[in-house]
Amino acid sequence: MTAHPGEKTNPADGVEPSGGDGQVPAAPGSGASPTRRGSRVVVLGGGPGGYEAALVARQLDAEVTLIERNGIGGAAVLTDVVPSKSLIASANMVAKTEVAEWMGISRGQPQSGLEVDLARLNDQVLTLAHQQSADIRANLERAGIEVVDGEGRLLAPDRVAVTTPGREREFPAEVVLLATGASPRVLPTAVPDGERILTWTQLYRLRELPERLIVVGSGVTGAEFANAYGALGCDVVLVSSRDRVLPGEDGDAAELIEGAFRRRGMEVLSRSRAAAVERRGEGVVVTLEDGREVEGSHCLVAVGGVPNTAGLGLEEAGVALAPSGHITVDRVSRTTVRGVYAAGDVTGVLPLASVAATQGRIAMWHALGDAVAPLDVSKVPATVFTSPEIATVGVSAADAEAHDARVRVVPLSRNPRAKMMGIEEGFIKVVARQGSGSVLGGVVVSPRASELIHVLTLAVTTRCTVDELATTMTIYPSLSGSIAEAARLLHMPTFGDG
Fold first, then answer.
1. Between 20 and 30 A from 389 (CA), which of 38, 41, 43, 129?
2. Alpha-carbon span 184 to 193, nearest angstrom
3. How far from chain centre, in Å, is Cα 93?
């Protein structure tokens, strides 16, 4: 994830990076130390934050032990990012057939609709996830990293205990990285049973497509699964406590997605907070706070995640936690204890697999004395894998005025490549500073927006100007041409009025 990867931090949910600015006071004497060949590094957690950190530490000649209790790759590979995006990719294949038919390509007569074998689809999704996990494990072992299957906890800042089947072991450590991730939040009035009331990690147990799926939660996780199951042919009801779906996203993008949901037949219940979910007969009933009841065959509860910090020995070791329960870290992943670092969803900085991996690498570069640049969350790209996708980076349009910036939007409907692909909705939005024209942020709403956003991420990271972006040639026809068009609209002429 992780709390589901792709899920952005929403300050309203009480999950802020280390007090809001991503920094905490450094532990006394906790500056980077010179590289020491043979330094002993112990990593707790085998997700992106953990395994990427382990590889960097090994590259810097450390002796590395990685401890994972549920499988290498962690939740990101086994229950979140890899399986969920595989499911979404399959759902998108169904949607593509509609475009093909619009272009005159059909299966012949008599024409029949596609049938979804959910059992086979879920089996294949989980097979891919386990293959990826095995590949990561093999890569770690090739690098000379000791992989231990077990549950670890801090005995002291320089000692880690690991419980494995049949015995307990202890590992000395000069550097410890905590990368234990997060788990789905469970509401006391909506306890998952793994059959009808489900978390996103349990959806892959389903053998048949739900007749009517109620999704509680309209954040990234809820919206992505509602979109996917709707595309697979399921009747979907999305329960949102906010005024609109995806409240943490660009307003125009969220409005477009909600409109697309409704046009495809999804029922969206805005400003409708769920009070309880219960089994009733062969289905479920979601009771809303205003007393209304929504009936369905299954319910997905997607209301965020909680950090996996219980049983790690953090308080005893002096590792500070935020009020939300996340481990407090600074921009180089240090906790409040010398030699102890943390990365990923357990820190609450940004619950994205890419951020977890970056935090893990930064932690090892810093701890082992290599060159390091602190994490800059203002340059982190993120994607919501709906249809179309929403990808964002940098300063939002809502914050443009505060940054003395201008915004321009180009609809994809006028892009020639989009017309060829049957894309009727979507846009490119670019945010640039007045005067200098430097690119501060952007939004892409489009199929494969997760790929297109890289151009704007590079522009934000390198402080590229809109003129540089506009004069860099693009392929014709291409969706990226609309990025250059938006940049051209932000050009500030240098000639006078006369």
1. 129
2. 13
3. 22
The tens digit of pLDDT for each residue in 114-129 reads 788 999 999 999 999 9
Give domain limits for the chain: 11-80+121-183+306-376, 197-303, 388-489
Q: Are 43 and 50 in contact (CB under 8 A)?
A: yes
The arrangement of secondary structure in 197-303, i.e. its CATH architecture, is 3-Layer(bba) Sandwich (3.50)
Is 259 known to sit in a ligand binding site?
no
Instruction: Say if 11-80+121-183+306-376 and 197-303 have the same CATH topology.
Output: yes
**Torsion sign over Cα 17, 23, 25, 30:** positive
**Which residues on neighbouring strands pair with residue 277, listed in sequence order?**
286
Residue 345 assigned as binding residue: yes
Q: Torsions phi, psi of 55, nearest 5?
A: -65, -40
Share of the chain above pLDDT 90, in %: 84
SS3 317: helix
295 pLDDT above the threshold of 70: yes
Q: What is the mean pLDDT of residues 331-349?
A: 97
Statement: residue 250 has pLDDT above 90: yes
DSSP state of 34: P
Q: Is 85 annotated as a binding residue?
A: yes
Does 388 sit behind a cis peptide bond, omega within 30 degrees of 0 on the bond before it?
yes
Secondary structure letter of residue 187 according to DSSP? B
- What integer pLDDT is reported at residue 115 of this predicted model? 83
> 219 labelled as ligand-binding?
yes
User: Is 14 known as a binding-site position?
Assistant: no
Whether the bond between 110 and the residue before it is cis, its omega within 30 degrees of 0, is yes
- Select from 435, 437, 433, 429 the least CA-distant residue to 408: 429
Give, in degrees to the nearest 5, the angle at Cα 110 between 109 and 111: 85
Tokens of 456: 């704007």
**Whole-angstrom Cα distance, residue 182 to residue 70?**
13
- Establish whether 217 is an annotated binding residue: yes
What's the CA gap between 202 and 205, in Å, rounded? 6
Q: Tell whether 276 is in a known binding site.
A: no
Q: Is 222 annotated as a binding residue?
A: yes
Per-residue pLDDT, 113 = 60
Is 47 annotated to bind a ligand? Reply is no
pTM score of the predicted model: 0.89
Query: If you average pLDDT over every residue of the chain, what do you get?
Result: 90
Distance separating alpha carbons of residues 14 and 22, to the nearest angstrom: 14
Domain 388-489 architecture: 2-Layer Sandwich (3.30)
Q: Is 49 annotated as a binding residue?
A: no
Measured CA to CA, the distance from residue 177 to residue 360 in angstroms comes to: 8
**According to the annotation, is 472 in a ligand binding site?**
no
Does domain 11-80+121-183+306-376 bear CATH number 3.50.50.60? yes
Residues 6+ apart with CB under 8 A from 188: none
Known binding residue 223? Answer is yes
